[in-house]
Amino acid sequence: MDARSATEAERQDAGAGVIATRGLTKRYRGGQLAVDGLDLTVPAGSVFGFLGPNGSGKTTTIRMLMGLIAPTSGTARVLGSAMPGAARTVLPHIGALIEGPALYGHLSGRDNLLRYDAADPTADPRTRRARAGSALERVGLTAAAGKKAKAYSLGMKQRLGLACALLQPRRLLVLDEPTNGLDPQGMREIRSLVRELASDGTTVFLSSHLLDEIEQVCTHAAVMARGRLIVQGAVADLAAGARGRLTVTTPDTGEAARVLKEQGAGDVVAADDQVTADPPERDLAEVNAALVAAGVRVRGFGVERASLEDAFVALTGEGFDVAG
Ligand SMILES: Nc1ncnc2c1ncn2[C@@H]1O[C@H](COP(=O)(O)OP(=O)(O)OP(=O)(O)O)[C@@H](O)[C@H]1O
């Protein structure tokens, strides 16, 4: 693949997907089926969110994609080549941040990068400092480059890990839970950095157990539950596949709840001055009219835009509930 020109490589990615797995399965030695028949297609140029509760198989999948462990069965193609066989030629095109960056606490941010770069036999030593400088710039660490890494906040460490991944031009970035353990400010910083990195056309594959994170950052997503793929596609399409909640604002919540149930609404929940429900399969104007006819003082009536969470609940019949 080294012989291919960049445009040829991009054309190939666009056709087959930057990542494409077929029937990818991993059963650990203890018998645990961690990933079960996964068919995943990651389009070129997407920011692809790999979403699932803890233990759903995300890390195991990423480790197979990176050639760190072999699948029990099925195939994984990354940048057009079969893994784990092609790991040596494929991995140089991938920037990865998996399970937190391995940093030397006693070295400065810049020296960590220089050391990381020096471990890459293809990296020209004459341009090393310039590479480190521009990677620091991209992740916003120039001002803190001289500080020891052990004095960095978690968010700064994560950004330094990203800088390592960005030392060379990459066609694909793979980030495993990049905001895990960060405070809200740190999360915001990493999210906006990911958006920025993607804006030049680099495909970004990131895992998360946070639904709203995926909605905020990603163009595409795949949802995992218990090792299986529940759904994948463009985030806008996934959310559109589910109906949002009907919300009625009224002081007469008891009567409103009764009428909504009578009209066929599901999961009716009354609280303070609002009743929410899964909308019934009928013209909502009729539902509104029925409320008014029953004497309910309707002060607000509408269906909220469906979120990815609604889609997940609709698809699995479960809440997207994660412990930690
Ligand atoms: N090395 C291993 N040996 C045996 N079982 C494992 C191993 N690694 C993971 N598992 C099991 O495989 C399942 C999937 O784990 P995995 O780490 O891939 O999920 P995950 O979605 O990445 O979750 P998390 O966000 O908690 O890392 C879990 O039930 C886990 O306990």
UniProtKB/TrEMBL annotation:
One of its GO terms (molecular function) is ATP binding. InterPro entries: AAA+_ATPase (IPR003593), ABC_transporter-like_ATP-bd (IPR003439), ABC_transporter-like_CS (IPR017871), P-loop_NTPase (IPR027417). Residues 19-251 form the ABC transporter domain. It comes from the Bacteria. Pfam families: ABC_tran (PF00005). Keywords: ATP-binding, Nucleotide-binding, Transport. Belongs to the ABC transporter superfamily. PANTHER family: ABC TRANSPORTER, ATP-BINDING PROTEIN (PTHR43335). This is ABC transporter ATP-binding protein.
